[in-house]
Amino acid sequence: MANESTGKGRPTPKRKISEAKRITSSLAPVVTKDQKRAAKVASRQERVASRTAYLRGDESALPARDRGLERRFVRNYVDSRRSIGEYFLPIIFVVLILTLIPKPAVQFAAIAVMYGVLLIAVIDGIFLSRKIRTLVSAKFPDAPTKGLGMYAWLRSTQMRRLRAPHPQRKVGDGVN
């Protein structure tokens, strides 16, 4: 057991002094409210510019999953065609409204349409995936095709307006 008669050799600091030291650390720079506000505005402008570049399709602003010539080719191929998957969400909305009608025949038909569209979208995705892998292998012989089919199918199931990066091709345009 330590000797209890010896103290620490200095008085305990007042709480006010301790909190002031903790708040204004010597390592942290002193920042005023105006500097914080300016930093917040600059950060927001940087985020907006980065998001705009991402939606435009600038290679430097894209995340790793969207980068590369192969991915750009896949996006352009998917955007140049129509698919049933991009209409799935609006169809689901119509089905939801139709299931509110108190007639079992209408409800059953609406749900059957929903499952039919889902099945067609999955089959379209399988064919799209195979086609994409073939086209990418022909255009970029050394590029790996792993994941490109799923990438294409997931993009084809998004509504055209909501795709990010935004489509750079119109429906019916050829893909180079």
TrEMBL record:
<dbReference type="InterPro" id="IPR021403">
    <property type="entry name" value="DUF3043"/>
</dbReference>
<protein>
    <submittedName>
        <fullName>Unannotated protein</fullName>
    </submittedName>
</protein>
<keyword id="KW-0812">Transmembrane</keyword>
<keyword id="KW-0472">Membrane</keyword>
<feature type="transmembrane region" description="Helical">
    <location>
        <begin position="84"/>
        <end position="102"/>
    </location>
</feature>
<feature type="transmembrane region" description="Helical">
    <location>
        <begin position="108"/>
        <end position="129"/>
    </location>
</feature>
<keyword id="KW-1133">Transmembrane helix</keyword>
<dbReference type="Pfam" id="PF11241">
    <property type="entry name" value="DUF3043"/>
</dbReference>
